[in-house]
Specification:
The protein is of the alpha+beta class and 110 residues long. The chain has one domain. Helix content is 51%, strand content 19%. It has three helices and five strands; from the N terminus they run H-E-E-H-E-E-H-E. A three-stranded antiparallel beta sheet has the order 4-3-5. The termini are far apart.
Length: 110
């Protein structure tokens, strides 16, 4: 009986550790997403010219993929990727940011 109790205790500790790791992963993803949005909104407020969905730098239009709210809108710009998540909302990211997202959390359209 003692072995059964010890096994149950070890199983509970393993489940708590797995849950804890998952919560930490989600927390890190949320923080990085918030950081990206806050840095982008700071850039938005300093730029009085430019459209809602793109900013002009050196004559080139750089899309603000995070401002695109639908998969269709995101897919219209080749520099943006629509990314799906079971844990978080589906979102549009720039190609470079989509590439850096954790593959355990997001799956991005090609």
């Amino acid at each position: 009986m003692a072995n059964c109790a010890h096994f149950a205790h070890q199983l509970a500790l393993g489940l708590m550790t797995t849950s804890y790791r998952f919560i930490v992963l989600i927390f890190v993803v949320l923080l990085s997403t918030l950081y990206q949005f806050s840095s982008l909104s700071a850039a938005d407020s300093s730029s009085s010219y430019g459209s809602l969905l793109a900013v002009q730098r050196n004559g080139n239009w750089i899309p603000r993929c995070n401002k695109m709210g639908s998969r269709f809108e995101c897919s219209q710009n080749p520099k943006c990727k629509w990314c799906h998540s079971e844990a978080l909302d589906d979102m549009c990211f720039s190609e470079s940011k989509a590439w850096r997202l954790p593959h355990q959390v997001f799956f991005c359209d090609s």
